[in-house]
Amino acid sequence: MSQFEATLDFARKMDAQDVLAPFRNQFRFPQHDGYNAYYFCGNSLGLQPVTVEKLMVEELNDWAKYGVEGHFNAKYPWFSYHHFFAERLAEIVGANKDEVVAMNTLTVNLHLLMLSFYRPTKTRYKIIMEAGAFPSDMYAVETQVRMFGYDPADAIIEIEPREGAHIIEEADILSAIEAAGESLALVMFGGVNYYTGQLFDLKKITEAAHKAGAYAGFDLAHAVGNVELKLHDWNCDFACWCSYKYLNSGPGGVGGAFVHERHGDNPEVFRLAGWWGNDEKVRFQMKKGFHPQKGAASWQMSNAPVFNMVAHNASLEIFKEAGLPALIAKSKQLTGYLEYLLKQLNNLSFTVITPEDPTRRGCQISMLFNAKGREVFEAITAKGVIADWREPNVIRVAPVPLYNSFEDVYRLYEVMKTV
Ligand SMILES: *Cc1c(COP(=O)(O)O)cnc(C)c1O
Asked: Is the beta carbon of 194 within 6 A of some atom in ligand 1?
């Protein structure tokens, strides 16, 4: 017998027992006919924390009040602005404070980190990635390969699901890495695939890459703030992410990067430099000669885009308060409930292509429709559900533990039942 029931009463009972339920009030929901929309798009764009507005106004006031002196006198001095994120980000990705930095945006960071960790030679130049990766990742990898004069068709090995399957077998990734062996320069994988919601085993992938003599780097766009990460202990070489999905830091919000301390603290590791990556003690001496500061922060080029980072500050505070382990525990329940309810639907014809095993997914469920997916999507949208449509036939929904309720999930089911 299931632990769940397909009733509104049950959903409300779950909400009443949920210690994280009050966090919902710390976010602004789009409105539909005068009530909160059923928002399931936190994997595309997280909701706005209520505190952002106040922090933004404070920052504007500090700029007005101090002008250039705000670099040192503002409440969060702009000179040090990126420092305010390190501890909270490190907690979220499982790293030391010096191994992470908030900077740039995701694809930019991917390029910068590849310039450090994709250093192909005549014999070792191949990159392994997942088939069906997010397009920006495909373009980044392809153009890096071309930049060094290699042919993407030869240099990029994509790991595909087996015939008829939707998710990639972990064993196929590991055996491809082993088979590529000495020709392999880099494994660049997503943490959670954006389309299927499959969570990959970063630890095993990293181990296999290292055994082959290659580096392992990860795009954590859909993993950060969603699943447990231990980038330091897993020995990952680098990772990057964006902050506007599960980290709720607003459209185009500042990205993040991880560089393992064995590289970050090694000045011999190549990095493109700018003044903000230079040792802070000598930054304003304006002299020749780049002296990288400790850790991932030395990959910074420019001074911090403060207004872009305000929402990040607000949102990470909420994560700290809620605690990622508690969020992940709720996430498993919430996604489990959604999965259970979807199985009760017999009026629609779709396949869930997200792994059933809760340890191989985050909070997303992707439904592949056999037909009329677009019509279903439009019908549920008209009823106040904000979900996500992906060509050719997939609806993705993400019940986010920070602000979605069991009742939200139940309402989605109710709406789908009447389509
Ligand atoms: C969302 C997403 C991106 C977006 O990249 P930006 O540089 O932030 O625009 C890239 N890769 C993956 C895997 C994503 O999910």
From this structure: yes
**364 in ligand 1 pocket by Cβ < 6 Å?**
no
211: tokens are 């055994």
Residue with tokens 């191989």: 360
Q: Does residue 244's CB lie within 6 angstroms of at least one atom of ligand 1? A: no
Rounded CA gap, 269 and 116, in Å?
7
* Average of per-residue pLDDT values in the chain: 97
Reported as a single tens digit per residue, the pLDDT across 113-130 is: 999 999 999 999 999 999
Q: What's the gap in Å between 74 CA and the centre of ligand 1?
A: 32
- Can you list the alpha helix ranges (DSSP code H) found in 118-169? 135-147, 152-155
Domains and CATH numbers, the chain: 8-36+323-417 (3.90.1150.10), 57-320 (3.40.640.10)
Nearest CA to ligand 1 atom 1: 221
Cα separation of 149 and 125, whole Å?
10
| Atom of ligand 1 lying closest to residue 137 CA | 11
Closest CA to 199 of 190, 207, 211, 208: 190
Contact 301, 276 (CB under 8 A): yes
Distance CA 322, CA 391 (A): 35
Q: Which SS3 state, helix, strand or coil, does residue 108 take?
A: helix
Q: How many CB atoms sit inside 10 A of residue 206's CB? A: 23
Tell me the C-alpha distance between 220 and 189, whole Å.
9
Distances (CA, A) of 408 to 262, 364, 390: 44, 14, 22
CA of 106 to the centre of ligand 1 (A): 6
Whether residue 365 is predicted with pLDDT greater than 90 in this model: the reply is yes
Is the separation of the CB atoms in 300 and 78 below 8 Å?
Answer: no
Ligand 1 mean position, distance from CA 293 (Å): 27
DSSP string, 235-269: T-SEEEE-SSSTT---TT---EEEE-HHHHT-TTS
Cβ–Cβ under 8 Å, residues 234 and 252:
no
The type of residue at 220 is L
Predicted confidence (pLDDT) per residue in 209-241, tens digit: 999 999 999 999 999 999 999 999 999 999 999
Cβ of 219 below 6 Å from ligand 1:
yes
pLDDT at residue 88 greater than cutoff 60: yes
Give pTM, 2 decimals.
Answer: 0.97
